[in-house]
Amino acid sequence: MSFRLFIYYCAAWGAAAAYFGWVVGRLIEGDSPLGGAALRGLSLGLFVALGLGLVDALAVGSQRNLTPLLMRLTMALGIGAVGGLIGGFIGQVLVNFTDGKSSWLVVFGWTLAGVLIGAAPAGYDLLGSVMRNEDKRGAVLKLRNGLIGGTVGGLIGGVLSVYLHGVWSGLFQDADAKDLWSPSATGFVALGACIGLTVPLAQVILREAWLRVESGFRPGRQLLLTRPETTVGRAESCDLGLFGDAAVEKLHAKITRQGNRWVLTDAGTVGGTLLNGQRIVGPAPLKSGDRIQVGGSVLSFGGRTKEAAAPQPAAVAATP
User: Fold this and answer.
1) Model confidence band, residue 252 (pLDDT cutoffs 50, 70, 90)
2) Is the dihedral of CA 139, 154, 90, 45 positive or negative?
3) Out of 55, 193, 194, 276, which could bridge 157 as a Cys pair, Cβ 3.0 to 4.6 Å?
């Protein structure tokens, strides 16, 4: 999917999941304000992290393999639930410490929750890199960006939740109306939407390298390059699937990270892989703006590292 849709879907899910989490939290909370805040926070983190993890899996192509998908979502759920639980609990503890006189202290708790929810989608990638002894740079950058986005979203969302609490409390004097609209419902929606918006936004703004399908199967698609190796081809297992083109092999090409640069390699195909109109005959370093042709599809490469942005000698041969 495009980066624009990626951000939109995450923000929309964040808002919807937060409201659903608020409903669940209200159903299971007891009479204790502290316990209720912790449970609502747990529900918030659980459902928002689930949505972010699912959309992230759709964006990186992990939905094709069920086992990795379930493992990715399980880890995201665990991290998000713990983050929401801790954030809700700490925020309410701070409010109780001031006898409710400083409700703005709850913002600290929701900021902390946002930090851990933002880290949730990257947890599986980092753990997988460690277990496979792969280059962890991409996973670490993804984690860093998620932490930044979650912090910003939790802070802004926390401020909005407290503000909306004050607004609705002033508009509705009836207790039932206040329970329906504040302090949690609208505040949770704002909080979830902010976290859902800023986490993918940080991933996109701070991205290091990416691909865009310019022509061919589903043009306009964009893919963040966070793994040590990204595969391109017709097979379901490829990270970037180019279906419906007989000239594309099941595994056609690979883009591999080597230090601070990205290298394109053909997978020994008959039709070959073209880089800026020339067929590559060996590993070819990529620079930002390069165009890669695979069968009838044309991809563009974008990068922000110094090595990716600077021209590199490529092993190519003139197209016959």
Assistant:
1) very high
2) negative
3) 194
64, 54 contact by CB (below 8 A): no
Contact 147, 119 (CB under 8 A): yes
Distance in angstroms (rounded) separating the CA atoms of residues 228 and 33: 46
Q: Give the CA distances from residue 161 to residues 90, 113, 207, 209, in Å, rounded to whole numbers and listed in that order.
A: 16, 14, 29, 35
Residue type, 17: A
Can you read off the two tokens belonging to residue 5?
Answer: 């849709």
Q: How many CB atoms lie within 10 A of CB 130?
A: 11
SS3 (DSSP) at 26: helix
CB neighbour list of residue 118: distance below 8 Å, 6 or more residues apart: 146, 147, 148, 149, 150, 151, 153, 154, 195, 198, 199, 202
C-alpha distance from residue 186 to each of 85, 108, 110, 196 (Å): 19, 18, 14, 15
Query: Which pLDDT band, with edges at 50, 70 and 90, does 74 fall under?
Result: confident
What per-residue confidence (pLDDT) applies to 126? 83
> How far apart (Å, rounded) are the C-alpha atoms in residues 307 and 134?
20
What is the Cα–Cα distance from 154 to 191, expressed in whole angstroms?
7
* Cα dihedral sign, 97-103-105-110: positive
Please name the residues in contact with 173: beta carbons below 8 A apart, sequence gap of 6 or more: none
Q: At how many degrees (to 10) do helices 185-205 and 33-60 cross?
A: 30
Alpha carbons 232 and 307: distance in angstroms, whole number: 22
Q: What is the pLDDT of residue 310?
A: 43
User: What does DSSP say about strands 209-215 and 297-303: parallel, antiparallel, or unpaired?
Assistant: antiparallel
Beta-carbon contacts of residue 94 (< 8 Å; ≥ 6 apart): 102, 105, 106, 108, 109
Contact assessment for residue 86 and residue 123, using Cβ atoms and an 8 Å cutoff: no
> How confident is residue 262, by pLDDT bands cut at 50, 70 and 90?
very high
